[in-house]
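>> Question from a student workshop board

For tomorrow's exercise we were told to take the sequence and the ligand below, predict the bound structure, and bring the output to class. My setup keeps failing. Could a helper post the expected result so I can at least see what it should look like? The ligand is zinc ion.
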Amino acid sequence: MPEKLLPRDVKASRQERVVRVLWPDREDVLPFILLRAECQCAHCVNEWTGERILDPATIPADISIERMELVGNYAVRVYWSDGHQSGLYTWERLRVLVASS
Ligand SMILES: [Zn+2]
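>> Workshop helper replied:
Here is what the output should look like for this input. Compare the format with yours to find the bug.
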């Protein structure tokens, strides 16, 4: 991803239950529950078939984020309140999440 398209800020708002991604050209507001449902890790998606293993109905409605950690300059790792923390959200992925939801 070109440097000029990197997010300037990624913030979790626990009160609103959203993650705000500040891009150079726009701001995205991603509900926790959507982000959690879109986890691409091997526990949530079958690596070979791309089929979703995670049933979104099993995600707690009060899902929250304990903390987030930058991974290099290409992704963020989210530590969820349900103990799940194996998913990385790349900037590319975050860019398309709003459009696909
Ligand atoms: Zn996952």
